[in-house]
Structures are given as C-alpha cells and as structure tokens.
C-alpha cells in the first residue's frame, strides 16, 4: 500500500486495491462525497456511471398498441408516437414497435324473401282477369349480430435525425 497525501494506491503486480470490511460490514463514504472518474462497466458486477445508465434508458426499445381502424397513415402514427414518447427524451436510434389493430365489420346478409308472406287475389279487368297482391307481411325476422374481423400488424419506428421515422 502506498499513501501519498490524499491518494491511496497499491504497488502490487495486478494493480487492484481491495476494501474488505470485517464480516458483513459496509464501505461508507462520510459526508457528501462522490465517486468520480469511473470507467464504463465491463462485467455484470461493475459499478457504472450516471451517463451509462442514462444512455441505456434513453436507448431502450419501446412498445405500444394502437387501433388504426380509422385509416391512420404512417406519418400520423409518428405524430401520435411523438406525443407518447417525445424524441427529446430518447437517443437517435431508439426503436419503437407498435402493435396496430384494424377492425372491420363483416357484412351480415339477411334474405328477406324467406320471411316474406304475401296474399294475392284474382280480379276481373276490362280485358279479362289478373292477379294482384292484396296483403304483404314479414314473419319474425332474426338478424344476427355483426361479425368483426381484427387484423393485427407490428409497425417499427426509429428516431432518425431527431424524428420518429417509419422503418418497417
């Protein structure tokens, strides 16, 4: 160990300096000191810098779901995406995946002729006789509920030049 003013260093071959509290004790910094001049993490148990954590958070992929049944274009989706995740809060290159749903109602055809009841009578006319409808009614008609078709697709956007841009 080597102590020079306020610097504690080691002269061993590997250059490591280890702090080993007795038992389960902690290493405590007294007052309001900061740990500074750290490198970026390499191993899973390495301490990290605030910049590294901020960069990782700003670069994480985002996931959303959006109903685009009203015909939203890719540009309009990007506008909504800017409202949900403003580009100022993320790094260029950040990816957003959007599960888009399109709902459509399938037509329900009802054949009215199968429920049509009509009565006819024969009438005398100046040139002979002819049939005419005298009564029209419909029996109870059951109309089935409309069937809905849902199509889903994933659209991918990426922040390019500080704007959400459709990429796939």
- Helical residue percent? 10-25%
How far is the N terminus from the C terminus? 58 Å
Mean pLDDT score: 88
Main pleated sheet: 4 strands, mixed
Number of helical regions? 2
Strand order of the largest sheet: 3-4-7-8
Q: pLDDT under 50 segments (min length 5)?
A: none
How would you describe this protein?
This protein is mainly beta. It has a domain at 61-108 and 147-166. The chain has two helices and eight strands. A four-stranded mixed sheet has the order 3-4-7-8. A two-stranded antiparallel sheet has the order 1-2. A hairpin with a 2-residue loop joins β5 and β6 (128-138). The two termini are 58 Å apart.
Keywords:
single chain; two-stranded antiparallel sheet; mainly beta; four-stranded mixed β-sheet; 8 strands
């Amino acid at each position: 160990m080597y102590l020079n003013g306020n610097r504690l260093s080691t002269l061993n071959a590997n250059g490591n300096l280890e702090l080993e509290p007795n038992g389960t004790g902690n290493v405590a910094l007294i007052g309001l000191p900061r740990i500074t001049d750290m490198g970026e993490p390499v191993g899973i148990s390495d301490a990290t810098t605030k910049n590294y954590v901020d960069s990782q958070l700003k670069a994480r992929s985002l996931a959303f779901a959006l109903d685009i049944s009203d015909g939203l274009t890719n540009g309009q989706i990007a506008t909504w995406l800017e409202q949900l995740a403003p580009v100022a809060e993320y790094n260029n290159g950040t990816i957003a995946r959007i599960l888009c749903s399109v709902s459509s109602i399938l037509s329900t055809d009802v054949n009215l002729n199968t429920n049509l009841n009509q009565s006819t009578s024969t009438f005398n006319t100046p040139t002979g006789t002819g049939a005419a409808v005298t009564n029209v009614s419909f029996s109870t008609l059951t109309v089935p509920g409309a069937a809905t078709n849902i199509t889903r697709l994933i659209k991918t956007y990426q922040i390019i030049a500080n704007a959400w841009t459709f990429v796939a």
